[in-house]
Design a protein that fits this description.
4-stranded antiparallel β-sheet; disordered N terminus; Immunoglobulin-like; 119 residues; 1 helix
Length: 119
Amino acid sequence: MSESITKKKDEKPKEENPESIYRIRPFYEMHFNRDDGSYDYEVHLAGVPKENVELKVLPEFFVLRAKRTEGKSVGIYTLTRYFLNEIDPETVKAEFNDGLLKFSVNIKDPLKDAYTIKL
């Protein structure tokens, strides 16, 4: 019994993870543009460099992940949102400047691939 106590005293204490990881839900705005049938998004990502921003878009929803590092702290911005209508992922336009991500997506025309039936 005294051996196990001695071993514990001689062992180095486990170092805690030096980084603190914070999950952050970014502030965002969405506007519907009736003129061209698109959704316009603005997402605020303060302190995030452009190379740490990842935006993935599917017809039904999008996923945004961005990483901000400050000293030993790491902030992970995450945002997942469903679109109100199915969109065309090939029409996505995005730009990132000064911590502001702007992107727009066009609503998919539901009759685009429809067959016309001759009567």
